Amino acid sequence: MGAVSKSPKILLMLAMLAGTATMGVAAQSQEPQDASGGDVMATVTAQIPPASEMTKGPKVEGIISARSEGRIQVTTADGNNTILSIIPETRVKGSGGFLGLASSKLAADSLLNGLPVTVDTLQWSGGLAASQVSLKNKDLRTASMIRTGTDQRFAEQTAATDALRSRVGDIDQYNVKGTTNVNFDTGKAVLSEQAKADLCTAANQANGMDNALLLVVGYTDSTGSQEFNQELSEKRASRVVNHLQQACGWKPYRMLTPTGMAEADPAADNTTPEGKAQNRRVAVNILVSKGLDGL
């Protein structure tokens, strides 16, 4: 596992495999989303027609980020999510040819979270269905190997978390040693290059402090419904956590549970464009328990 995990693709596959993404109903928003930032998942409820009654859809290329019975979610390089139905006609093609398994078996054993795929689709009024899923056999082997090793990895992380808890105990008061805010465009949860750099700077700063933890809190401006803003603030916080762990090397067991606060606790006036821009943020707080500060 050590040699494999150095690849950026493997790190992303590990993150996808460790996630517990849920396919839910997309909330409606007054805060607009476009193709580069909208990635709220939707539930397919209508009866899927036979493949012969559907038309050719767009090609989707990315990494499988969630699975449920009869469906997969593919996340593209720009962060967009696409839900695809698996139908009886779906074919899965490895680099050595088509894999001869029933579609239900394929969904369970071959279409693993974290697996890079290229999907030819069919479209109908209710969404998209996968007609052919193409993958590389070496990627499938790697995803399978990572999946097998996750139990051991989680056990190691749990042990580290327990060790940290034994030092912190029940102390719930912390000294804030620093706060880094990163901002987002309206309706989006996409990190800018400047935000990515700022997050790694914050992680490096915290790494130099004994007993430091990170608390990540997401916020929105006042545009949009409360329900949508809650989901968006949580999504922004999740994106920041993923970057801190995957790109900046921050250990998961030194991360307090992230949270989304929607439009609560604004940093500036929500009646002006400038104020709203400041409120579309995620705050990364460096914390040290008062009982351990200075040890």
Could you describe the 3D structure shown?
The protein is of the alpha+beta class and 295 residues long. The chain has two domains: 139 residues, Copper binding periplasmic protein CusF (OB fold (Dihydrolipoamide Acetyltransferase, E2P), Beta Barrel); 120 residues, 60s Ribosomal Protein L30, Chain: A (2-Layer Sandwich), CATH 3.30.1330.60. Helices cover 32% and strands 26% of the residues. The protein has six helices and eleven strands. The strands form two sheets. A five-stranded mixed β-barrel has the order 2-3-4-7-6. It is globular, with a radius of gyration of 21 Å. The N terminus is likely disordered.
Q: Give the class from helix and strand content and strand pairing.
A: alpha+beta
What is the third-level CATH name, the topology of the largest domain? Answer: OB fold (Dihydrolipoamide Acetyltransferase, E2P)
Name given to the CATH homologous superfamily of the largest domain? Copper binding periplasmic protein CusF
Please report which band the strand proportion falls in: under 5%, 5-15%, 15-25%, 25-35%, 35-45% or over 45%.
Answer: 25-35%
Number of strands: 11
Runs in which pLDDT lies below 50 for 5 or more consecutive residues are 1-7, 17-45, 101-108, 164-171
Main pleated sheet: 5 strands, mixed, barrel
Overall pLDDT metric: 76
How many helical elements? 6
CATH architecture field of the largest domain = Beta Barrel
Give the CATH level 1 class of the largest domain.
Mainly Beta
How many separate domains make up the residues?
2
**Helical fraction:** 25-40%
Spatial sequence of strands, sheet with the most strands: 2-3-4-7-6
| Secondary-structure element string | HEEEEEHEEHEHEHEHE
As a whole number of angstroms, the C-alpha radius of gyration is 21 Å
Global shape:
globular
Please give the alpha-carbon distance between the first and last residues.
Answer: 34 Å
